[in-house]
Amino acid sequence: MKKALSLGIAILLCSVTFAQNIDKIINAAEVERIEKVLSADDMQGRKTFSPAIDRAGDFIAAEFKKSSLKFLPGVNSYLQEFTMTKAKPATITGMLGADSLNTGNVTANTTAAAINITSLKDYEIVVVKKGDDFSKVVFPLFDIEKNMLVLVDTSFAKRFKSMQRFTGNAKFQSAVSQVFILTANLNPSAIDLHIKNQLTEQKLRNVVGILPGKSKKEDYVVFSGHYDHLGIGKPNAAGDSIYNGANDDAAGTTAVIILANYFSRLKNNERTLIFVAFTAEEIGGFGSQYFSRQLDADKVTAMFNIEMIGTESKWGINSAYITGYEKSDMGKILQANLVNSKFHFEPDPYTDQNLFYRSDNATLAALGVPAHTISTSKMDSEKFYHTQGDEISTLDMNNMAEIIKAVAISSSSIVSGKDAPTRVEKTKN
Q1: Half-sphere CA count of 40, side-chain side, radius 13 A
Q2: CA distances from 37 to 52, 138, 271, 305 (A)
Q3: Can you name the residues that pair with 224 across neighbouring β-strands?
Q4: Coil vs helix vs strand at 23
Q5: Running along the chain, 429 residues long, what does each successive block of 10 average in pLDDT?
Q6: Are 182 and 134 in contact (CB under 8 A)?
Q7: How far apart are CA 117 and CA 195, in angstroms?
Q8: What whole-number distance in Å separates Cα of residue 168 and Cα of residue 162?
């Protein structure tokens, strides 16, 4: 009886000590300290390819160093650098049947210096007819490794202008091109198209640190958020031109930094933990795409992507939702680890917005990883989403700290090697 009583007291004392320790590491003051730096005006909205985002990356790297994280194998810093190519059309000339082709009605998703199409047999032809769902027809084409000629009906003139802006973005080097032509002639008899591009290489960098595991070093658990945002735009009515991105996604990056410090101090991870702040989420998720290509997805046990946790969820404080909740049993594992907690995770209530495929979890999820995003953002009514009003003053630091604690505690059985969530159905090989 005395032994049982002593054991019970010891367990209680350990639990109390653990609670005290986590509160010392994960608290509102620490959240505010990091948020103030990342969302400050002098970070100028952390726009991709800007000097400001490099300053943000350097700050994150310094925080990872404080937590004594290791570098990725073969890399001598926390910066995972890669190159994107931007192709700007210098000249576009030619004919589609009897119609002239030029920079107004042609755009190409390419990294090629030149494109010459002199036969309709050169490229696979896709037609976007009046009345088609433009997004459903066009967007999947970017994932197909084929040369394609896409004939877009003139009823989509406005969408075509948006497409021109999109194809003008920097992208990964590729041997294939998708050429889009805005035309009323959807069944042409001939083509003679010549595009000359000015190519520019642009450097990007994720910030990545590793906490090696003990008994399961080859099993990886990823904690992530993106640190880029929208930069500087036209001033709003209040004269503010900076998109600070305090919630989107300095909040998620703050969580990753704090979790790295927490697990580094805890020193009980059997699996290897990878902490990553992604770049270029706002312009196409290029940071997470590059990162995912460097990993063996079969070795990634789980991914906790954290995005916009600075405001209360629709259920109030001490709650968050998990995108793609039904695609694996990860949510159930997390909630089971919170059985004595006031915190609760819920399934994504905004499924009509396709959030599971709109954040940095998507690339690894497509490869079968139980990769989910944790968020509190009310996507049907989030007042400051993608506005200059997304400032630190709009965030709830105490609630953010509780969410980060909940991620730390709920992930414990996955980090320790006890649990492994079921895999997500692959959509890519």
Answers
A1: 12
A2: 12, 39, 31, 21
A3: 276, 305
A4: helix
A5: 43 44 96 98 97 98 98 94 96 97 97 97 96 92 92 97 89 94 97 97 97 98 98 96 98 98 97 98 94 96 98 98 98 96 96 93 97 97 96 98 98 98 92
A6: no
A7: 9
A8: 10
